């Protein structure tokens, strides 16, 4: 049975009820969007990551709505609203040190790692904050005749708050505020709202003092666990680390993946296997074209453009890179020098390539990633049509991708390439093809025949043994039953994880 409110409490008016509903819903969605960036250094940014986070937040919303309505009927909403905001804010702040402590131990790309970190970091604050809405409804309903109007109005206001939280975080806040700072500030705002609400509804001072003390302790605890990012952008947690053996070597780390190695003193030094395969597959064109070489690079690791520039002085290169922060890091720490020979165009490669001239490039190199997977819209037959358009007739497309041991994504991408190009080769470590442990695989496509023995010999000369599949019969067997990826069907993440 509901308990009558003591005379020391005040009723919740429609204006404050609307504001509290709006802020509670907005903060839940701020935390949901920010969770993707907080977890990225440990589990990457993939469809799996976002699916896990969204699922956990939705579970918290469902449990919180049920528990909040039940508690409001049993205890009385005015008693609970302020303290729930306070506890929800502290739980939000706690996600920062929780992920800092458990993130390194849960590092991985599997669904289990995503679900564990999402749950321990964000289920509790989502549940607590979602309990606010039914409490506010219970506090504002005066009679049955007006209950539908009140519930509908507050539901619409909560949805508007969720939209504002989503759009402001994704489009604006994460571009100007570090993720950890944003989460801590959101938690602090919730605690402040809770303190004000408790004072106005309950005239309570004791909980206010305890909340302030907890807030100070939480902030200090969060500061004791610095984040793993040297630099943070809307897309990546970016770090540059030195190589243990090569003093002039630098490794670009995006989220939890090593993306590129550069030698500041020797751009021809290639440490990563896939870049050696790139070099081996394109060496005949580089040798033939020399200073007239032109290359388009999808993704800004900068190791391969620097290598080709050193191998063919006078050649021209254009890099299509989504994240301006990576370009800044390249200039500041990776020896990137932009001039008339090496230019960067910022923006999504799928859109940017449409503005590139036809028959303009000898080489197109695909090295764009979001977590483990190539962004799906850079894998489809429609995108490959653009790659084919900008390549000269004798040009070559080389593509780096990562797959699990079953190589379902590799097989599908090979089938897609074969639907567009006359000649395709699959390059990889002997342990990867056909039955090994997964990892990087490089695909080569051209309308001209590929001299695979020459590519293998060149790769071995660069220090990387290479298995290859290039004969039509072998490719037929390799791609049997695999789909051709299209804009309306490109389940890249699912193919990698199945």
Descriptive terms for the model:
single chain; 498 residues; alpha/beta; Growth Hormone, Chain: A; Rossmann fold; 4-stranded antiparallel β-sheet; 54% helix; elongated
Task: Tell me what you see in this structure.
The protein is an alpha/beta fold. It folds into 2 domains: 14-228, Growth Hormone, Chain: A; 237-497, Rossmann fold. It contains 17 helices and 12 strands. Strand 5 (294-298), helix 10 (303-311) and strand 6 form a beta-alpha-beta unit. Helix 3 packs antiparallel against helix 7 and helix 7 runs antiparallel to helix 8. It starts with 13 loop residues before the first helix and ends with a helix. Residues 1-8 have low confidence and may be disordered.
How are the elements arranged and paired?
Layout: H1 14-43, H2 47-75, H3 77-102, H4 111-130, H5 132-140, H6 147-176, H7 179-202, H8 206-223, E1 231-232, E2 237-242, E3 249-254, E4 257-263, H9 273-289, E5 294-298, H10 303-311, E6 316-321, H11 324-333, E7 342-346, H12 349-352, E8 361-366, H13 381-390, E9 391-403, H14 408-418, E10 423-428, E11 439-446, H15 452-461, E12 467-469, H16 472-479, H17 492-497
Parallel strand pairs: 5-6, 5-8, 6-7, 8-9
Antiparallel strand pairs: 1-2, 2-3, 3-4, 9-11, 10-11, 10-12
Helix pairs in contact: 1-2, 1-3, 1-4, 1-5, 1-6, 1-7, 2-3, 2-4, 2-5, 3-4, 3-5, 3-7, 3-8, 7-8, 9-10, 9-15
